[in-house]
Amino acid sequence: MKLLEANGIYGGYGGADILKGATVQVDQDEIVVIVGPNGAGKSTMMKAVFGLLHVRQGEVLYKGKPITNGKPEQMVRLGVAYVPQEKNVFPSLTVEENLEMGAFLIRGDIRPRKEKVYEVFPKLRERRKQQAGLMSGGERQMVAMGRALMIDPQLLMLDEPTAGLSPRLIDETFERIIRIRDLGIGVLMVEQNAKQALAIADRGYVLATGTNRYEDTGPNLLANREVAEMFLGG
Amino acid sequence: MDLLIDLIQLSVYGVVLGSVLALGAIGVSMIFGILRFAHFAHGDLMTIGAYVGLSFIMITDAPIWWALPAGMLGAALTALVVDQAVYKHIRRTQPVILLISSFGMALVLRSIVQIVWGPSVQSYPTGIQRPWWVWEIAIVPTHIWIILATIVIVTALHLFLTRTRIGKAMRAMSDNMDLALVTGIPAERVVMITWLIGGALAAGAGVLLGIDSRLTPTMGWNILLPVFAAAILGGIGRPYGAIAGGLVIGLAMEISTLFLEPSYKPAVAFVIMVAVLIVRPQGIFKGAL
């Protein structure tokens, strides 16, 4: 049984469907990357899975149970965390408060969770009293991922975690994502830096015009000549 | 020399008025930050608070300052009932519909005050106020109490917003509603608490205004414009900005009487509000507008 399955998803933002039967599956302990051209519906697929837009047809299963069109709050309770591409921190809150908000639904002591996040992102511990809105793009991305990790998720969904980051920070971010996977957390992410993302991915999907074009292991997709020519810029 | 004394004297009045405006503006600002609409019935929540406080001390014969907690409780519950009965059902519509509804709600609340307490002017039994004279400046004891009460309320709010889980969630929702949603913050619960606090602060403003002058069914409505001016000047959606905005508007209104007729005081607030909207619509503290 897969951790998450989204099968044959159709849906959009009220108008014409953007997703036309797209399918994505994620297992525990694996990094799954969705790549594809602009407008392919990559981010839309993430939102559909997380219940942020209406799924008209198709089904989303979490550990085999149907959760199609579930509320985001319900997803968080199930152990699915989502990091949007933009505006993914609370700017007027401190780093520490951002993390606390991540654990809003958790009853009891959240300090061990905070410690765990600080272990993955040691820099956040140093800057914990700083307002998130005053931090650099790379640091904000750490805060956003840290916030998502606070629920101790089984599945972490990342929408373009390296957008706008310098090459050095991109490498660092991918290293962190591998580390998160090694903690036993499934990672589903959308990436523009497709080559690098596929290089660390266990599996990848190439999405175009709302449907699956290719799916394979990361290295195989990278080695695929058609994929390289059409979607990875040669 | 005389001018300096006048200036200091008016500044004292300005801080008193500013305290009242600040308490009102914090609520307006928080409600805008979280619900994205300008709450026009806020002035009438102040009025309700002032009258509930008055009735409480009249009925129980309690000391006058008990009006404050009683009025705050009354207006907080009123705000919550209004939200659950009216605003909740139109939350997902356009902001302008909410704005017009709140205008209607303002009329409803004011009429309720007139029906329950009558249209005539009433006042708190403050007794005769002997001013203390500090170097030719008259300081009325109630003014000191008004400023102290404001400091206590604002400090309590600050602790709530920075130390409690739900207070932090309010700031988070005001920062970024969509992110709050995907984080799993229960929006409806936070909204309800926002109304309770906004209503309580409005009542604080109403009771203090009532103690400083008199109670009329239109007292809150009349002060709504400067309250909005304070909220906008401070940066709408920023409770701390609203405090600064309230003090600036209060001081400007009182000091303007040095060279303008006192009846122009609201106009001064209005001019500042328009100027801020043209020059720096995000306000001092970079609000959401």
SSE diagram, text form:
The complex is a heterodimer of chains A (234) and B (289).
Chain A: E1 4-11, E2 19-26, E3 31-35, H1 42-50, E4 55-62, E5 65-66, H2 72-78, E6 80-83, H3 95-102, H4 111-120, H5 122-126, H6 137-149, E7 155-159, H7 167-182, E8 186-190, H8 194-200, E9 203-208, E10 211-217, H9 218-223, H10 225-231
Parallel strand pairs in A: 3-8, 3-9, 6-7, 7-8
Antiparallel strand pairs in A: 1-2, 1-4, 4-5, 9-10
Helix pairs in contact in A: 3-6
Chain B: H1 2-35, H2 42-60, H3 67-85, H4 95-117, E1 132-134, E2 137-139, H5 141-163, H6 165-175, H7 177-183, H8 187-212, H9 219-234, H10 239-255, H11 265-279
Antiparallel strand pairs in B: 1-2
Helix pairs in contact in B: 1-5, 1-6, 1-8, 1-9, 1-10, 2-3, 2-4, 2-8, 2-9, 3-8, 5-6, 5-8, 6-7, 6-8, 9-10, 9-11, 10-11
Protein architecture, described:
- The complex is a heterodimer of chains A (234) and B (289).
- Chain A has 234 residues and is of the alpha/beta class.
- Chain A starts with a strand and ends with a helix.
- In chain A, the strands form 2 sheets. Chain A has a 6-stranded mixed sheet, sandwiched between helices.
- Chain A is 38% helix and 25% strand.
- Chain B has 289 residues and is mainly alpha-helical.
- Chain B has one domain (2-117, 138-279): ABC transporter involved in vitamin B12 uptake, BtuC.
- Chain B is 73% helix and 2% strand.
- Chain B has a two-stranded antiparallel sheet.
- In chain B, strand 1 and strand 2 form a beta hairpin.
- In chain B, helix 1 runs parallel beside helix 5 (141-163), helix 2 packs parallel to helix 4 and helix 10 crosses helix 11 (265-279).
- At the A-B interface, helix 2 and helix 3 of A face helix 6 and helix 7 of B.
| Largest two-chain interface | A-B, 24 and 17 residues
Count up the domains of chain B: 1
**Corresponding CATH architecture of chain B:** Orthogonal Bundle
Give the CA-CA distance, first to last residue of chain A.
36 Å
The fraction of residues in strands of chain B falls at under 5%
CATH topology of chain B: ABC transporter involved in vitamin B12 uptake, BtuC
**Number of H- or I-type helical stretches of chain B:** 11
Instruction: Report low-confidence residues of chain B grouped into runs of 5 or more.
Output: none
Please write the string of helix (H) and strand (E) elements of chain B: HHHHEEHHHHHHH
